[in-house]
Write a structure and sequence with these properties.
By secondary structure, this protein is of the alpha/beta class. The chain has one domain: Alpha-Beta Barrel (TIM Barrel). The chain contains 14 helices and seven strands.
Length: 297
Amino acid sequence: MTPNPFLAKLGFSANDRVVVTHADDVGMCHATIQAYENLFNFGTLTSGAVMVPCPWFPAAADLQRHIPSADLGVHLVLTSEWQFYRWRPITGRLTESTLVDSEGYFPRTDAEVQEKGDPDEALVELEAQIQRALAFGLDLTHADMHMGAVAHPKFIAGYIQLISKYKLPPLIPHGDRETYATFGVDEDTFEMVKAMTDYLESQGVPMQDFATGLPLDDPRDQLNVAKRMVSELKPGITHFLLHPSVDTPELRAITPDWPCRVENYKVFLSDEFKKHLEKEDIKLVGYRAIRDAMRNV
């Protein structure tokens, strides 16, 4: 594989294993905010993405004020998956919106919003999420997507339009079909995304070489799972995903996968894992460095 051109732009060699350790769902609930702050200060977490429509968003945005170096992007949202803890679009008249379900919230599944959602309405909503994040003082470092809902022929062109307009790195790994499947991208969409990634890279937009992350379906032995995953990383830029949360009653009430989220957090807060990153000579980087390299092209 041809070395990622952004390795050199970031000051790394073609043989370096450069990793963005990334917290998803920051601001989904309070437990995610405390987890991000603790891990970012601990030094094992380099980036995260904030969910603007969620109730705890203002507290998540406040991270930028008391941690000026906080590396935070926007986690673009078109779904609201939990049984009782829900969120709505921040734009539009909800009774007429194609982006809500019968209960007036974002749909619970990718499939529902991808089937019913109007792409123009989605573009307005996604841009409003970016604009609100900026209005709250976030120095946005990138834009990714919640549950892969935006990774669909209806919405992906709008996503590319937004990352181009705001000059934000996207989460679009080079990846093969198997990699894209983990982001909810089906076979038909893969061919379109592949052509798009080739074009974007030719325009100087950064791409990740790999995407991987800690599981949300099994909390057992996650420390050793994480250490093995790190040891198996290849040269290039890897987006390493986790969903860290401190253990709170609110988190337990929201999601049945709370044990995995808590274990994600504990792994990255462990001295053993931190030392393993150092032993493996992993080069940690945040999206701010990638964004700045992109804007300096």
